[in-house]
Amino acid sequence: MASRRLLMAAAMLASAAAAALLSAPSDAQTERRTFVTHSGAVIETHGDVLDPMYTPSTVEFDPDEFLRNFEYGRVSEEDGRTVRDYTIVARDDLVQEVSPGVFFNVWTFNGTVPGPTLRATEGDLLRILFINNGSKTHTIHFHGVHPAEMDGVFEPVGPGGRFTYEFEAGPAGVHPYHCHVMPLEEHIVRGLYGMLIVDPPGGRAPADEMVMVLNGLDTDFDGENNLYAANTVPFYYQHHPIRIEAGKTVRVYVANMVEFDPVNNFHLHGNLYRYYPTGTDAVPAFYTDMVTMSQTERGIMEFEYEHPGRYLFHAHKVEFSEKGWSGIFLVERQGAPDGA
Amino acid sequence: MEPRRAAAAAAPAVLLCLLLAYVLGPGAGPLGMGVPLPEITVERVDFEGSEIRATVRNTGPIPVEIAHADVNDRIQPAAVEPDRHLERFEAATVRIPFEWNEAEPYVVGITVGDGTRFEVAVAAAAPATPPSWGLAGSFAAIGALVGVVPVAIGMLWLPLVRSAGAGWRHAMLAFTAGLLLFLAIDSGAEALDIAGSLAGAFDGPMLVATSAVLAFLALHYSASRLAGAAAAGISISVGIGLHNFGEGLAIGAAIGIGSLAFGSSLAAGFALHNVTEGLAIAAAVARRRPAIPALAALVLIAGGPAILGTWTGGFAYWPAASAVFLGAGAGAILQVVISVAGWIRSEGGSLGRPGVAGGAAAGMLVMYVTSLLV
To answer: What CATH number is given for B40-122 in this structure?
Structure first.
């Protein structure tokens, strides 16, 4: 008798569980959502919206935080010279949401793509402790002037290994750094890169400074990028516009780290910028709204907006912009309320 | 004895359940070898108004989340209904607002949660025909024109077949067998063609083979239990009906997605092709003298499915279902070919006779020649 009662109880439990399972998903279907298309049409749906372009969303990596973040290192003084100590940890096991709904195994310096933006002044001694916590061999190869053994090419750092790169910062300008282990294209495109900014002695004129690393991700490994962006997350600055002040100088440190495609470019709307290739010269080489950059080409852009409002910036290789490399500057008057 | 037999029957079943519980349950770690990859199939693409609609099915071994939609490899905002999570074999509609141009090629891409992108190419965009009573009427008219009417006309040869001597009758039955053999192979080839376009998860070729064998067995079983004047005609009509359903599906689907202009030459081709099917039924029922209503019923069984096919194909085309129907048609018709051969033999005819051999050859040849018109 007891076993029979047990059986009945089990059957009742099972049917209750089945009923719960069957009824649970239906609640989500009743809500109607809307979204706006390119042409301004408003679409209503009872389903899910797939819209990385116009729908604000958050992923693990925060491009807003990255945009104006500069790592000056642990500063000390030796023999009257400034020494900057950094620690950079490589990993190749992180799966991050790189675009809403897309989870991809990125390879990272200090947990992000791009890696941290290092900043120093010309003549500083840089000491970068590199720890490889990945499962593959990695290095850091810095663009710039340094001794051969600090070049991060012939000194592979195996899993669990360490290496300290030590060299004098210079010349003043913008220099990318990246892993230099074969297969090189893979080690770069998976995310092992970042920017080193070297200020001239005495620094540059005050400005609203920001970093844009132009990059792409090949999420299906077919040798072509599926997603493009300034700072990794496609369309991010389009639905999270970058707020800047009218009349104030904006300085963008920009580097092109896109692989596979021979060129990338940077077009600014409603304005022109002074462009300093590699940031090594005090005099701008161009006054333009469009520069074309090959792999690891980089430079400094400076501009001021006269009129408040929303201004697009994007790759004028529009395939890239339609796959995520586009954003908006929101120009506001000083003291004006938000969104003016 | 009885409890022992029951135990003997149950023991392997219980052990099998335990094995499945172990394999499917948690803790079967060593069995989790290999990496299951997501796979989706874009089953159809419709162009409606200012929208491209893609029907997407999860045809892989694991659930997937749909992340992005693109047109010509450019990411577009989109909606997915009912939702972006797809269990195995579940389907969803991805609505992509897009100002498409008629008659131009498009590639629709869907990216899933791990970044893998799947795409389907459309050779020329054409506006989908929205379902309406008027369209349903047109489909019915087309189905009748290619199915019912030609079969009925072919049946009018019945008096001629009836008055013929045994030799001629055998020749006509052989002609029917040759003609049906053509239809069986045609249906089978068409089914395999569609099966080839199906996702791997459907095991397309075996889906066709299974449909064919089941239809063969079902028709054989029911034919051996049917009696009466129309019995022979029913099995042959059912076989031909399944084939015409497949033809209707193809026509309806092509019109439905706008890729076919159903012109007069095509209608004429189908009519000529299918008139021979009426002759086949006439030859099968000639000796049993069925009544007129029974004959009309046979015409509807053989020709009517063409109408159902155009509706199904035009309003709810699904390739897997087409493969099943066409495969079943092949199996059913093959069963009829064997029955017809049996009748000829039971009446003393044989393939060694010139009339029988010539009739079968002529049946195959006529079908091939008329198929060129379609």
So the answer is: 2.60.40.10
